[in-house]
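ok so I'm stuck.
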Amino acid sequence: MNALPSEETTPLIAARHMLADQVFDAILALLLDDKISTGSQLNIDGLAKKFQVSSTPVREALARLESTGMVRREALRGYRVAPEPSATDVEKINEARTMLEPGLAALACENQSAALVSELEACNTALNLARGGESFVDYRAYLKMDEQFHRKIAEAADNEFLLRAYSAIEGHIQRFRLVVQKSMSGESTITEHDRIIEAIKLNDSSAARIAVEEHISGIAQRAAQNYSQ
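replied:
not stuck anymore, here's the structure
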């Protein structure tokens, strides 16, 4: 039987994860603020030196970024910055979301609670306050709240297999948010989220399903406009 972590080692594990999170955000800022161009190689030792950390949190951050599709790992060549998602990529991720998320929202209605509604409302309030900004530092909070909003609904569905399916595409959804939606004001998103919350509050699974479908459709329309500019 494996021993549980001691009180002495547990804080070190937490600190390491926190450091990896910080490096993850720092690399994201470089990618999204056009400080590293598409196709550029990401040197682990160089990034470690830049952020004054060991190579371990850099490796962990790049592995997380690979799961979103924002960077790609090539055999014997390391990591490179992936191309931005194409209009076809965005269309396909929205198709996947339309297949999955409305059903998750309908199931979440069956497990509706005052706590869930309160958490969703808090996410949407924070999301609204965080709208705007031209750099990653400015809109990071917005993206995080949007991610949490949809994650809470997926978790509330209380189906581990559907949650795994959602988790499998969650990183790619975040990539879409980061690269495609960063220039959007978010006003429509707030309104669409409100409709989803109201349906869940009323335990109306049909309305929740429709509200999420309309939200994803709205995202697709706004993305299409973004690509046509």
